[in-house]
Amino acid sequence: MNIADIRARIDLRFPEFSLNVDLTIPGCGVTALFGHSGSGKTTLLRCIAGLERAPGGQVSVAGQVWQEGETFVPTHQRPLGYVFQEASLFPHLSVKSNLEYGRKRVDGSDGHKVSLDHAIELLGIGHLLGRKPDRLSGGERQRVAIARALALSPRLLLMDEPLAALDLARKQEILPYLERLHDELAIPILYVSHAPDEVARLADHIVVMEGGRAVATGPLTETLARLDLPIRLGEDVGVVLDTVVAARDEKWHLAHMEFAGGRLWVRDHGLPVGHRARVRILARDISLARTPVTGTSILNTLPAVVVDSVDDSHPALTLVKLHVGELPLLARLTRRSAHELVLTPGRLVYAQIKAVALIG
Amino acid sequence: MLLSEGDLGAIILTLELASIVTAILLVLGTPIAWWLARTKSWWKGPLGAVVALPLVLPPSVLGFYLLLTMGPHGPVGQFTQWLGLGTLPFTFWGLVVGSVFYSLPFMVQPVQNAFEAIGERPLEVAATLRASPLDSFFSVALPLALPGFLTASILTFAHTVGEFGVVLMIGGNIPDETRVASVQIYDHVEALEYDQAHRLSGVMLAFSFLVLLALYAWRPNPKKV
Predict the structure, then answer these.
(1) Residues B189-200: pLDDT tens digits?
(2) What is the ipTM metric for this complex?
(3) B123 vs A224: which has the higher pLDDT
(4) Alpha-carbon dihedral of residues B26, B29, B33, B34, nearest 10 degrees?
(5) Looking at CA atoms only, how far is residue A132 from chain B in angstroms?
(6) How is chain B split into domains, by residue range?
(7) Structural fold of domain B5-50+61-218
(8) Could you tell me which chain A residue has the CA closest to the CA of B225?
């Protein structure tokens, strides 16, 4: 365990609900706490923040003990930022005063890593400073709340479904800002969500929660490709890959996305060369061939190695895990096809990818 | 002159009493309301009931007990005598003590409702923004509960102006000491001075109506949180 890691051991028991986790979360990047409502994600976040008391629990962040044995650092003394699900701005204060509320209470000796101006600029709220919260849209309010938490220069930013109360348009308005946080700031973020698209877009690591337990935890790409507990990111199982725009084909309006295992053509959404973007490939959109196929409409074919396979949800289907270079892919085939192709581990195949979705 | 000197003195005394009682109850009632609004303790029920007692109790009952407690043989009376202050009944400050008890629910209940309406969330938010509990009480809870405080203060003030039974029991009828407007009117009626009773009653009626008008017409709308 790295000294900069975040550690949380919580054991809470109520008659109708229990939370029992022992987690070590990397002290950088975005970690998604993903699961259905009632799976304990929010309670876990509240325990880490000290808003909920879990007797006997243990919480430490970057080497600082927040809770252990008799020690319980009250919330207002923990160097964290917290973004609540619903708008939580103080209605009696202007946007500017809301932003300053926490900041002026922070002990400056720790050094302000994030300046107020930077936070305002990152969230694009400079033009709202003089307004009262009731004069803001839902999306604007949430952006102010995020900036307010950031301006504290927290050691850990906790976000409890910050987009759940917003409609799709407002959500799309905020997601780019969250990506900027991820790219530009070195603050670890714990991001609670039940929305697959947010997780696919933002998370580096994922903790899958179910019934008060963490059933899977690890880097996003590898965890999504686990065969022992296929994690549906919405409609289907699949993987998410980090890619960079390597080239653009103006004639055909395509972009060539490069990742550690190769290149993929996607529709050109106007992203400049060098821009980082994620792509999602669903298991049902991959078919396999033993030899390179010519004369096909499919643009993306990648050589891959079979790692393993398991039975899928229907007896006719099987889920095959592949490696393209270091990166995993999942493919759904009929068992009959898998049998005829003799997909034993180690076999080289050609993965034909019918659809690649660019996400953010 | 519309009002006699005695009437004017009674009105001034009444306003003085109501102002002091309101001020005392703001200080005393706020922590009680805060505790009642936020506690999960078993004692919430009993204490809430005690605070509400003056709403249903005949003022004479409250006055009777206060008279006994503060009188020369009561525990409070003995204490005040030991302090060299004499006894409280039939003094202005005795009236203040009685009125504080009598008007307690009018301060505590609106403020408690206002605190309850704020809910837990703004205080949690304040805690995540480094505000200690005391800090967030003053910087978040009080400003958000301001309309409740306004209502409570007006009600307390007006209710103290209107009290009669408790005054009669523990205040008596001493000019410029305990003879408040309500008692003065009673005196006028007993003496068959209907003209004077009319005038003073008219003043009280107009005052009460204006206070309530202010309360109902200009009360700020509760802010959306």
Answers:
(1) 999 999 999 999
(2) 0.85
(3) B123
(4) 70
(5) 12
(6) 5-50+61-218
(7) MetI-like fold (1.10.3720)
(8) A91
